[in-house]
């Protein structure tokens, strides 16, 4: 398969979609990114890597950090997850409050904000340094020690994260948050602020495509745990657009409002794409299209 020409073809075709979506502007630090960025990278399980465009430029991973939290949580608390969070798609926005009230403070799944906040709380009870552990996970798995938090983004999330504070307070009122919410959200916002490139992401999340084994040969998670995360990505990873994403792209994936999307095709490859303009559900317009074209042109998806 000629991955280089496929990526070139995709880059050319998605360029006409610039201007349709809108860069996340809920915090000033994210709004100032140049909208006309596009990067894509692929890492095959035979070790080959391909990339195009702005694939080496680091951007805010935002909700893609939820995959790291989920991995650490499953390792610590077991594959059943427990009763503090569900595993059903939400069908609602990533930061929705309304469902939480109906469901007594139990988030639908770990890949929406409320779910990741609960998991961060659980991990914080065991690891007071969870913030640094998540960063270390990104660095070690990507074999890139320069990966860092963007303190300006983290602070800006903290200063204006009224909805996330509302979610956390609401869950605390139901007894589903143990720690002080300021510590929990400080960790959560820092995880969102981590900056990585598409190439870093294909390496970091390679274990999800490779039965739990990282690119440096470490068993990060069991094969069974890996399957479970991939199942959750397919059903919950792109919020209220999961159906459309599975329909068009056919790959378990996780998106973030920084414009990144990471996907895996088990036993074949990890894929990452970045373009900051988002659709109404908070997924990258061009990123989704690029992934769709990729599975169309390669003829590879999970189905
Ligand atoms: N920092 C964002 C938030 O918590 C992350 C959301 C996302 O990437 N979908 O609202």
Number of helical regions: 14
The end-to-end distance, rounded to whole angstroms, is 19 Å
Please tally the β strands and state the result: 9
Q: Can you list the ligands bound to this structure?
A: glutamine
Question: Which CATH architecture would you pick?
Answer: 3-Layer(aba) Sandwich
Radius of gyration: 18 Å
Q: What overall form do the CA principal axes indicate?
A: globular
**Class per helix and strand makeup:** alpha+beta
Percent range for β-strand residues: 5-15%
Estimate the mean pLDDT confidence: 96
Please supply descriptive tags for the structure shown above.
alpha+beta; binds glutamine; 11% strand; globular; 5-stranded antiparallel beta sheet; two-stranded antiparallel sheet; 9 strands; 303 residues; Beta-lactamase
Structure overview:
With 303 residues, the protein is α+β, with helices and mostly antiparallel strands. It has a single domain (3-298), classed as DD-peptidase/beta-lactamase superfamily (Beta-lactamase, 3-Layer(aba) Sandwich), CATH 3.40.710.10. Helix content is 47%, strand content 11%. The chain has helices spanning 3-14, 28-31, 66-77, 98-102, 113-126, 130-142, 151-160, 162-173, 181-193, 198-204, 206-209, 223-236, 242-248, 285-298, and strands at 22-23, 39-44, 49-53, 59-60, 195-196, 253-255, 260-265, 269-274, 277-278. The protein has a five-stranded antiparallel beta sheet, sandwiched between helices. Strands 1-9 form a two-stranded antiparallel sheet. Strands 4-5 form a two-stranded antiparallel ribbon. β6 (253-255) and β7 form a beta hairpin. The radius of gyration is 18 Å and the shape is globular. The relative contact order is 0.20. The mean pLDDT is 96. The structure holds glutamine. The site of glutamine (GLN) has 11 residues, from loops. Glutamine binds next to loops.
